[in-house]
Specification:
alpha+beta; two-stranded antiparallel ribbon; about 100 residues; single chain
Length: about 100
Amino acid sequence: MTAPSYYHALFTAAGDSMVVRDEAGRAVDCNPAACALLACSREQLLGTTPLDWAPALQPDGRQRLNRQQRCWGACMRVEAVSFDWVNRRLDGASSSRRG
């Protein structure tokens, strides 16, 4: 098995939700666990951003845009960061995620 196919197999089989985003934050790839978490197909998820999946307010009371800027900004400044984020599935239900 080549390295790319090995990593793709891990990505696909992982139980954790994974979404690959481009520089603008749009989803360019995802694994089946991400589709299950957000109750959507891969095609529905591609091209969207985390702001499309989030309710207007996050659990800490912040607007989704303010919360996203803070969390993703921290991700870019340090090697590892942990935060809580709530997603809204396409069927309207909330789905918690630990980032």
